[in-house]
Design goal:
heterodimer, A: mainly alpha, 12 helices, flat, B: mainly alpha
Chain lengths: 269, 274
């Protein structure tokens, strides 16, 4: 790679130009909102006490990260998220597979599964908090509950996507049951499993935040509540931004994983 | 070939077993439904489940019968329903047009893309404390949460729908010198409908979540408040009845969107999958 080709990215043709246009416009959009927001507050068009401002948030972030307070809250939230979400993966994937591979079991649990799937289960939060207390246990349970059902249903849907034709081919070549499962059934389920994992992250995140907003003594939701109850809008906004960043990063990580597992598939069309 | 007699049998018979006949499926479903209720009732009566927290089905039914006779309950239902429907309708009215425009003008989309991604990845319920500070405890703060929850869920699939319309169809329309307007109304819009419906499905669920969380967090009336108050005084039966109402709302909402879907898809020729 020579210096000249780096300096002139347009060499790549129309595609590279489009790409750079996309990046440039995105950057412009991102920055213009921040700049307009900051200016509007500085010039007095918007009230600082109601909307805060990017620079105020930055100052607060430096202060609270410096004192280690935010890091503690983030660690608590991440632990709750990790334990609950991990448990949801460990229970949801096997259950989804079991339901997919046993039609009787599936028919048996289907009404309840459907009902629970349609319910905003977060409504059970108050009783969970009373039962498990305001510590980490109740959050882990809520996170598990929120992510578990989506993951189960996605894996179940995935088992339905296994193609009979491919299984037939495997069996024609005297594949063992295990070999057919490993080479045909499992790869068909993986994309659905990852989709479920992605949806599960979103719901688990909602679980952590809401549980912490309603009743907690630590965590990023607690940080937000504390700031909100003292009308410290900057603190609330900072908390929301941190949660958003976590959402963006984890979502992107799973999408990468999805693309990796899709890579071997031939392009259709 | 005699060595592998399995080949002649349909493959799923080995991995899945044959599909169950419809009546057997329904019977098993009914059995499963009743089984859980009976197990719950028995466990609560024997003290395996603490009835204080888990209640029991008969108590929930009795609590439900008592609740529906109270004007307060119907007031709660009205408040929750208002928040849900106003927020959702606003999200639909704004989400679909903005989605269509953003998908149609790629430069505009690139411009707003980072913020869109960020806001979509943030659980909007995290904004509740700000919204409550801005709009207060009343109905309007819940409408805002419901709106925000459903808006992005409808907007993003709509954008995707416009941007993934089959290029061959666009080419055909262009070759026949279709105006941009005709192209939009006869190719882009119908191609986007399935995506919009997907967005609506997610949107309904998110709107419901918004109502529940908004009311649990800060409200003076609504079903979320009823649930919250009932659990604070350990009336688990009333609480479960409230949760049950949300279940019904969720099932009805998804069913309604399904109706909308079949209505808009009725012109499509059936594509047999072999």
């Amino acid at each position: 790679m020579t210096a000249a080709s780096v300096a002139r990215p347009r060499r790549g043709g129309v595609l590279a130009m489009l790409r750079s246009e996309r990046v440039l416009l995105g950057l412009a959009g991102f920055l213009s909102v921040l700049v307009l927001w900051e200016l509007a507050v500085q010039l007095g068009f918007l009230r600082r006490a109601i909307l805060s401002s990017p620079s105020l948030m930055l100052q607060l972030a430096i202060r609270d990260f410096g004192s280690g307070r935010l890091a503690d809250d983030i660690r608590v939230s991440l632990t709750e998220f990790g334990l609950g979400y991990g448990a949801a993966l460990l229970t949801g994937i096997p259950l989804g597979m079991a339901l997919g591979f046993n039609r009787r079991l599936h028919a048996f649990v289907n009404p309840w599964l459907g009902a629970i799937y349609a319910t905003p289960t977060i409504a059970l939060l108050p009783i969970i908090v009373i039962f498990f207390g305001i510590g980490m246990e109740s959050k882990v349970i809520v996170v598990w509950m929120e992510a578990f059902v989506v993951i189960t249903v996605s894996v179940l849907t995935g088992t339905g996507s296994i193609e009979d034709r491919y299984l037939n081919i495997a069996y024609s070549f005297k594949a063992s049951r295990w070999f057919a499962f490993r080479t045909v059934a499992w790869p068909s389920v993986i994309p659905f499993m990852l989709a479920g994992a992605r949806l599960g992250v979103g719901r688990a995140l909602v679980g952590v935040i809401v549980a912490e907003l309603l009743a907690s003594n630590a965590g990023i939701g607690y940080y937000i509540t504390l700031a909100g109850s003292t009308l410290n809008i900057t603190g609330v906004m900072l908390g929301v931004v941190l949660i958003g960043l976590f959402g963006v990063v984890s979502g992107e990580a799973i999408r990468r994983l999805e693309r990796r597992f899709e890579a071997w598939r031939p392009e259709i069309n | 070939m005699a060595v592998v007699p399995r080949v002649s049998a349909p493959a799923p018979a080995r991995l899945f077993g044959p599909p169950l006949p419809r009546n057997q499926r329904l019977a098993l479903g009914a059995a499963g439904f009743v089984f859980v209720l009976v197990a719950w009732e028995v466990a609560a009566r024997l003290g395996v489940l603490n009835p204080l927290f888990f209640s029991k089905p008969t108590d929930i039914v009795i609590a439900g019968i008592n609740e529906v006779q109270l004007p307060r309950f119907w007031n709660d239902v009205t408040v929750s329903l208002t928040e849900f429907s106003v927020g959702l309708v606003l999200a639909i009215l704004l989400g679909i047009p903005i989605g269509l425009i953003s998908g149609w003008y790629p430069r505009f989309l690139y411009f707003i893309d980072p913020w869109l991604n960020f806001l979509n990845a943030t659980p909007r319920v995290a904004l509740l404390p700000i919204i409550v500070i801005w709009l207060g405890l009343g109905v309007s703060s819940k409408i805002a949460v419901v709106f925000l929850g459903a808006f992005f869920s409808i907007l993003i699939p709509t954008i995707q729908g416009v941007r993934t319309v089959d290029k061959r169809l666009v080419d055909v329309a262009r070759s026949f010198r279709a105006s941009r307007r005709l192209l939009f109304t006869s190719v882009i819009l119908p191609g986007t409908v399935p995506f919009i419906v997907t967005g609506l499905k997610i949107g309904v669920a998110r709107a419901l979540l918004g109502v529940v969380v908004g009311e649990l967090y800060a409200a003076t009336s609504g079903l979320g408040v009823m649930i919250s108050k009932a659990s604070q005084v350990l009336q688990a039966d009333r609480m479960f009845f409230g949760v049950f109402i949300f279940t019904i709302a969720g099932v009805l909402g998804v069913g309604l969107v399904g109706r909308v879907e079949t209505y808009f898809q009725r012109w499509r020729p059936r594509q047999g999958t072999r």
